[in-house]
Amino acid sequence: MAMELKRGYRLIEINSRDDVYNVLLRMWPKRVIPAHELYEVMQLTPFDRNIFVSKVGLVRHFFSVNELADLFWGLSRECE
């Protein structure tokens, strides 16, 4: 369920890897995510980018929606 916030943002409840996939797919319908766009949307600093790259394993110029859904869902499960 989505909850409206100020300035057009809203919270989206994420309960599964498929929810993550669907959110990413809405943002990048071509299923290809340029790394610079992802970093900009996530507002990553150079330090944050280095941490992200260490999780991915290597520097990338593009990501697939599928692989990022797996990565984000997996990382969210590590926090439990």
Question: Would you spell out the secondary-structure blueprint of this structure?
Answer:
Layout: E1 2-4, E2 10-12, H1 17-27, E3 32-34, H2 35-41, H3 46-56, E4 62-64, H4 65-78
Helix pairs in contact: 1-4
In short:
By secondary structure, the chain is an alpha+beta fold. The protein is 54% helix and 15% strand.
Can you offer a commentary on this structure?
Helix 1 packs across helix 4 (65-78). The strands form two sheets. This protein has a two-stranded antiparallel sheet with strand order 1-2. A two-stranded antiparallel ribbon has the order 3-4. The chain starts with a strand and ends with a helix. The mean pLDDT is 86. Helices cover 54% and strands 15% of the residues. The protein has helices at 17-27, 35-41, 46-56, 65-78; strands at 2-4, 10-12, 32-34, 62-64. It is globular. With 80 residues, it is of the alpha+beta class. The chain has four helices and four strands. A hairpin with a 5-residue loop joins strand 1 and strand 2.
